[in-house]
Amino acid sequence: MKAIAKRKVLRVLAVLAAALILTLVGLSIMFMMAVGPGNFGRLVLGIGSSYDETPPPIPARLHGPAILIFSKTNGFRDDAQIVAANRALEQIARQHGWDSYTTENAAIFNPAQLGRFKAVIWNSVSGDVLTEEQRDAFRKWLEKGGGFVGLHGAGGDPQYAWRWYVDDLIGTQFIGHIMDPQFQMATLNVEDRDHPATRHMGRTWRRSDEWYSFATNPRDKGYHILVTIDEGTYRPEEKLLPFTKPKNIRMGPDHPMVWTHCVKDGRAFYSALGHAASTYQEPQHREMIAGAISWAAGLQGPRCASGKEFTS
Fold it and tell me: Cα–Cα distance between 88 and 86 in angstroms, integer?
């Protein structure tokens, strides 16, 4: 009798184990279908992630203020968005008489090559992309007067290996974005209409996007908030799978989406806007990015010194 009971228990355990395995396989397949095979490989299996050691060749001469456009992804990648944004950034640079160089080679983050640029744009960069030496070169360049413009996914990783980047440069940890539906119309409130990035805007800005939420408010660190979002005009919930309960990602009445701050003598700008490729054809969005680059490069607006902003 004991042997029979034991066999029954083992059969039940085997069935439960098989059911668990099938569930995990099913969830993995659903996740892979949701994010795509390439993203699944990078995010789950670590396939396709790399560090760069050999710097790229850049033009011997860069005319006028030069900007570096960087879009390496060791994490999530939306290729359509990155391609569209890189193209738009190059167009914006030409329209303003700036030279630009676009690369996904992180070895360009060395003192000699960074010194050729006035500002660096991280276009939805994801995952851990810089070596310790490259991190050090980038941070020193920025603190000595460089400019940083982070767009959308550059602040959208669920976790970061480089704490200075998320805690100080971006200023807060991403916790999720809306899903079901992923893109919703909402109202943005423009707090600063004098900054080069937002001086062309009205008091409100109505548009559709994949809206981000963050663990803390960068305003609490003294960062300069340019644009917030009205949570009453969309549904701040993240529902990744059909049978799961939506995650509440509300931040409350003060929900920043675009902000700036000084990094010693350097300038940092971050915008959570711009997931869809089509957003980089929006005139107001492009004008905001152009103003952000102009400020980050030290060409317009307040300057930074010793971590403080000065208007004269």
Answer: 5
Average pLDDT rounded to a whole number, residues 58-79:
94
Confidence label for 20 from pLDDT (cuts 50, 70 and 90): low
Place of tokens 């937002």: 198
Task: Measure the CA–CA gap between 120 and 110, rounded to whole angstroms.
Answer: 13
Question: Residue 282, CB half-sphere, CA atoms under 13 Å: how many?
Answer: 18
Q: Where is 113: in which H helix or E strand?
A: helix 111-114
pTM above 0.70, yes or no: yes
Q: How far is CA 261 from CA 41, 71, 149, 203, 289, in A?
A: 35, 22, 11, 21, 16
Residues 6+ apart with CB under 8 A from 222: 261
Q: What are phi and psi of 303, to 5 degrees?
A: -100, 165
Rounded CA gap, 291 and 194, in Å?
Answer: 11
Closest CA to 89 of 304, 297, 298: 297
pLDDT one-digit tens code per residue, 73-86: 999 999 999 999 99
**43 pLDDT exceeds 50?**
no
> Phi-psi bin for 249: left (phi > 0), alpha (psi -120 to 50), beta?
alpha
Question: Is pLDDT above 90 for 46?
Answer: no
CATH 3.40.50.880 fits domain 66-310: yes
| Residues forming beta bridges with residue 119, ordered by sequence position | 67, 147
